[in-house]
From TrEMBL:
Origin: domain of life: Bacteria
PANTHER family attached to this UniProt entry: AFLATOXIN B1 ALDEHYDE REDUCTASE (PTHR43625), ALDO-KETO REDUCTASE (PTHR43625:SF77)
NADP-dependent oxidoreductase domain mapped to chain residues: 64-354
Protein's recorded name: Aldo/keto reductase
InterPro entries according to UniProt: Aldo-Keto_reductase (IPR050791), NAD(P)_OxRdtase_dom_sf (IPR036812), NADP_OxRdtase_dom (IPR023210), TAT_signal (IPR006311)
Protein's UniProt keywords contain Oxidoreductase: yes
Pfam families documented for this protein: Aldo_ket_red
Length: 377
């Protein structure tokens, strides 16, 4: 009886969130007049209820939208109240999200602790993704993917996450000093030991994806992909499709920039916000790139969608194996992001929107210095 009540409560939250933002429209589904409204809402949710990362033995069935948890502890100027973040993570699971993303580097360490505490009561119902790859978990100290380091970090992550297995373990950044075959082989040993269930890469090149995949099947590649960062369309997404690897899009809203929530007047706290040092988030670049936001707003205004929802729905429409993991610290934004998966583009409107977006030339690099050196290796 208890499990039935929990499931009913979750279905109510899922349906209520979708209906609350007006997603009962002809673009999504047409209701049979004989159906009850509850049956109608159920059909509406099921339409975009899951995606699959990877294939065969190492595939994961996930919600179409995941949750990036980094900003609850790290790199977003402020740090929210801890209990509020725990509640938000648990509410996300009730809403239907099942993929939660963290890393040793976020804090460092403290984000894994937060996620571990939040997820402990519902561990078997969700999927936890975390990452290794930096010296002492600090990107500023450089890369370290030596086998002994990977094994040590995984043991430490398991303790912080309050679990005995990690659903998806990513190499956070490729370490040029350690052969990819050795990294993949080490993760394979951890999978055989039961500490890890699936292997992922983050910001890896086509060559390294192929090398890793020959040793240990790669379930997912995580890279920055948004309407401001579309390079993966020509590089790694095709190889993911070829090899049956899922693609997890981090910063799908370009760290809040695409939403219009931040603008040229936004002030960052450099001690806890990487955006302060990134060219794309400087005043002139924000102003130069704003026409893209205007296009999304125009499209969304006529369809009851927010700018963020159009941007996320566009990503989801590109490939069935793409799963965005926008981060947020706010319940309203969490619901907004999740509901974007319910929108179904008509083929002509998707083509027209993409044509308009293609005309915009994005100003400002997404990374500089050490951060730029650590991506696409």
């Amino acid at each position: 009886m208890k499990n039935t009540n929990i499931n009913n409560r979750r279905e109510f939250l899922k349906m209520g969130a979708l209906a609350g933002l007006g997603f009962i429209s002809s673009n999504i589904v047409k209701a049979d007049e004989s159906k009850s409204i509850n049956s109608f809402r159920q059909d509406l949710y099921i339409q975009g209820s899951k995606r699959v990362l990877g294939s065969g033995k190492h595939q994961l069935e996930v919600s179409p939208i995941g949750l990036g948890c980094m900003g609850m502890s790290y790199h977003r100027s402020f740090v929210p109240d801890r209990q509020m973040s725990i509640n938000l993570i648990r509410k996300a699971a009730e809403l239907g999200l099942n993929l939660f993303d963290t890393a040793e580097a976020y804090g460092p360490m403290i984000n894994e602790e937060l996620v571990g505490e939040a997820m402990e009561p519902i561990r078997k119902e969700i999927l936890i993704a975390t990452k290794f790859g930096f010296v002492d978990g600090m990107p500023s100290k450089g890369l370290d993917s030596r086998p002994e380091t990977i094994k040590r970090v995984v043991d430490q992550s398991l303790k912080r996450l309050r679990t005995d297995y990690i659903d998806l373990l990513y190499q956070h950044r490729v370490d040029p000093n350690v052969p990819m075959e050795d990294v993949a082989g080490t993760v394979k040993e951890l999978i055989q030991a039961g500490k890890v269930r699936n292997f992922g890469l983050s910001e890896a090149s086509v060559d390294n994806i192929r090398k890793a995949h020959t040793v240990q099947q790669v379930t997912a590649l995580q890279s920055e992909y948004s309407l401001f960062t579309r390079q993966p369309e020509k590089t790694v997404i095709p190889v993911c499709e070829e090899l049956g690897i899922g693609f997890v899009s981090y910063s799908p809203l370009s760290r809040g920039l695409i939403t219009g929530y931040i603008n040229e007047r936004t002030k960052y706290i450099p001690s806890n916000d990487n955006r302060a040092a990134l060219p794309r988030y400087q005043k002139d670049a924000i102003i130069a790139n704003w026409p893209l936001i205007d296009i999304l707003k125009e499209f969304g205004d006529h369809r009851g969608l927010t700018v963020a929802q159009v941007a996320l729905a566009w990503l989801l429409a590109q490939k069935q194996f793409i799963v965005p993991i926008p981060g947020t610290t706010k319940w309203a934004h969490l619901q907004e992001n999740f509901d974007s998966a319910a929108y179904q583009f008509k083929s002509d409107e998707l083509k027209q929107l993409t044509t308009e977006l293609d005309k915009i030339k994005i100003v400002g690099e997404r990374a500089v210095g050490q951060q730029a050196q650590q991506i696409n290796n």
